[in-house]
Design brief:
Layout: E1 9-10, E2 15-19, H1 25-33, H2 35-41, H3 51-61, E3 68-74, E4 77-88, E5 93-100, H4 110-125, E6 130-136, H5 140-148, E7 152-163, E8 166-176
Parallel strand pairs: 5-6
Antiparallel strand pairs: 1-2, 2-3, 3-4, 4-5, 6-8, 7-8
Helix pairs in contact: 1-3
The structure holds coenzyme A.
Length: 182
Amino acid sequence: MDIPLDRLQDPEADVRLVPFEENHVAALAAVFQDAPTLRFYLPSLARPFSEAQLRGLLADWHDMTTDFVFTIVHGGKVAGLCNLSGVDWVNRSAEIGVALLPDGPRGKGVARAAVRLLLGFSFREAGLHRIMARIQDGNDASTRLFEALGFRREGALRDAVRRSGGWRALNVLSLLEDEYRP
Ligand SMILES: CC(C)(COP(=O)(O)OP(=O)(O)OC[C@H]1O[C@@H](n2cnc3c(N)ncnc32)[C@H](O)[C@@H]1OP(=O)(O)O)[C@@H](O)C(=O)NCCC(=O)NCCS
């Protein structure tokens, strides 16, 4: 599938998405080495990755078939990453995720602009119908971000994540193609 780079930018927010490339690994490593960020971003894989491990993980992950990983660039600098994962082409659905660098431009609308661009790609270019976000209970920033973009809460996967000897629910939110507002 062609990825239209010119449509993956929001000049007003100074945010663009670039399909993952190996030379982004060094800048993105902070996401995968910061426990609080990682624990929210990858609920099932919350252990720090070395740069070498990460190179393999991201290259495999970004297969451009069922999984797409985009680097978020803000002000010309790598700010984080977002992903469209587990694309089910039969049912035209996928899961979305986003993480900013721990010392990145958080709380400034950068993640929102990035997710909005990825939603545009998902519904327009990829022709998907349903996008799901699974958000750990207590991840208020992520909940606000997705709700502000129109995602609706469907329910909770109870005790779906094991953390520090306890359990956390994963809230399931979704956005359908006719609910998407560019
Ligand atoms: C989730 C994440 C990407 C949000 O980034 P962000 O820069 O705060 O996002 P935005 O600036 O676009 O806005 C998010 C909203 O949450 C609010 N917010 C930000 N931090 C918050 C916090 N700690 N508690 C409550 N609300 C928060 C923002 O004010 C904004 O809401 P508003 O528009 O009503 O003011 C970022 O916190 C992150 O990388 N977290 C770690 C990884 C993660 O949780 N990923 C999501 C997995 S589903």
